[in-house]
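Design a sequence for this backbone.
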């Protein structure tokens, strides 16, 4: 799309749409070929989620955000991280987590995919996992009353099911 001035429309990442190129293989497709997947586990309310470290650039402490008037409700705003405009998403909202907030979101997981950088707001980082491929069930769409759209898969940890967040699908939602 073009903006009224005729210049290319900018997305939330401060980049023209022309620069966004989905990579050939989704992150999940690549991960399905790994024997073991390293993931960072974190909490939103009572529920634990993970993000594969292959998509994680860094974890930073919460910083104030600039609000965007036209952004979807799950976008908290943007931060300027070392010169890059980085949208922050409320994972709680995008995943439709219904468990009560234990504490304020204190950390941001910075992810990079497809040339874009995005921050995910979380309450606290829990642990690092190394999960054997055999223990992961991919493509689980519905699960325990959360929005399965942005969940890539599940694994069991101490009899608890832990969801794997699909960074690619979260970014796609932000770009919609």
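Sequence:
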């Amino acid at each position: 799309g073009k903006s009224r001035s005729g210049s290319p429309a900018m997305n939330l990442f401060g980049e023209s749409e022309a620069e966004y190129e989905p990579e050939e293989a989704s992150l999940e497709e690549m991960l399905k070929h790994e024997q073991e997947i390293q993931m960072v586990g974190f909490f939103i309310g009572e529920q634990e989620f993970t993000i594969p470290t292959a998509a994680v650039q860094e974890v930073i402490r919460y910083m104030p955000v600039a609000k965007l008037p036209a952004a979807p409700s799950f976008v908290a705003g943007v931060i300027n991280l070392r010169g890059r405009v980085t949208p922050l998403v409320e994972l709680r909202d995008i995943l439709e987590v219904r468990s009560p907030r234990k504490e304020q979101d204190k950390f941001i997981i910075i992810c990079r995919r497809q040339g874009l950088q995005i921050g995910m707001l979380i309450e606290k980082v829990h642990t690092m996992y190394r999960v054997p491929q055999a223990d992961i069930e991919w493509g689980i769409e519905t699960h325990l009353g959360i929005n399965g759209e942005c969940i890539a898969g599940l694994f069991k940890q101490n009899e608890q099911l832990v969801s794997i967040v699909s960074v690619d699908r979260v970014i796609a939602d932000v770009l919609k």
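The longest strand covers residues 36-44.
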